[in-house]
């Protein structure tokens, strides 16, 4: 029988000076008016800015997908930051830097690049489900994902359906690419 992959190993835990934690979250945010502006150089710059910001805050990016009209982030974060503070910091910094670097974004949306709303989903031990979902958003299957047995495939299908319906309710989309 296969080992239970839901078990947490010491390697998965985050060890800080006074805490041991495992805080993982799935964030989804989009440009104002669901604008399809995250393409080409803008998408590359946005990804780089988000990675730098997370690195400075000691936040590990487990996975990220940049779509033309939204961003998926799967992160492991320290307990000293709330998820809403992390989202605010990432969105605020990237908005300013992207609009400075690409003036057409400032013309399109002068005050803020990102919509004020954001999806936050606490992941816990369901990493594979979120990784597969985000990989599906990128349009490719993650190469280092371990294949799962049939009953787990059904669980993944159920979770993806749940995530898709929740996402559509929150962001009003019906077509996931």
Features:
177 residues; Alpha-Beta Plaits; 5 helices; 6 strands; 43% helix
Topology overview:
Elements: E1 14-15, E2 20-21, E3 24-29, H1 40-56, E4 60-66, E5 71-76, H2 83-101, H3 103-108, E6 119-122, H4 127-138, H5 150-171
Antiparallel strand pairs: 1-2, 3-5, 3-6, 4-5
Helix pairs in contact: 1-2, 4-5
Short summary of the structure?
By secondary structure, the chain is α+β, with helices and mostly antiparallel strands. The protein has helices spanning 40-56, 83-101, 103-108, 127-138, 150-171; strands spanning 14-15, 20-21, 24-29, 60-66, 71-76, 119-122.
Helicity range: 40-55%
**Gyration radius, rounded:** 17 Å
- How far is the first residue's CA from the last residue's CA? 35 Å
- CATH architecture verdict of the domain at 14-125: 2-Layer Sandwich
- Give me the side-by-side strand order of the main sheet: 4-5-3-6
What's the rounded overall pLDDT mean?
79
**Which structural class should the secondary elements be placed in?**
alpha+beta
- Taken as a percent bin, the fraction of beta residues is 15-25%
Unreliable stretches covering 5 or more consecutive residues? 1-5, 140-149
State the total count of DSSP E strands. Answer: 6
Instruction: Tell me the overall shape.
Output: globular
CATH classification class of the domain at 14-125: Alpha Beta
CATH superfamily of the domain at 14-125: Transposase IS200-like
Can you tell me the CATH topology of the domain at 14-125? Alpha-Beta Plaits
């Amino acid at each position: 029988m296969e080992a239970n992959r839901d078990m947490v190993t010491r390697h998965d835990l985050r060890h800080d000076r006074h805490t041991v934690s495992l805080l993982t979250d799935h964030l989804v945010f989009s440009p104002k008016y669901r604008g399809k502006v995250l393409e080409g150089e803008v998408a590359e710059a946005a990804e780089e800015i988000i990675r730098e910001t997370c690195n400075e805050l000691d936040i590990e990016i487990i996975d990220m997908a940049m779509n033309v009209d939204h961003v998926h982030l799967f992160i492991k974060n320290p307990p000293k930051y709330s998820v809403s503070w992390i989202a605010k910091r990432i969105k605020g910094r990237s908005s300013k830097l992207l609009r400075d670097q690409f003036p057409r974004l400032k013309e399109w949306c002068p005050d803020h690049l990102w919509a004020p709303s954001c999806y936050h989903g606490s992941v816990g031990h369901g990493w594979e489900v979120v990784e597969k979902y985000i990989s599906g958003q990128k349009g490719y299957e993650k190469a280092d994902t371990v294949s799962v047995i049939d009953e787990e495939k059904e669980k993944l299908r159920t979770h993806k359906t749940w995530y898709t319906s929740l996402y559509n309710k929150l962001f009003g989309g019906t077509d996931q690419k």
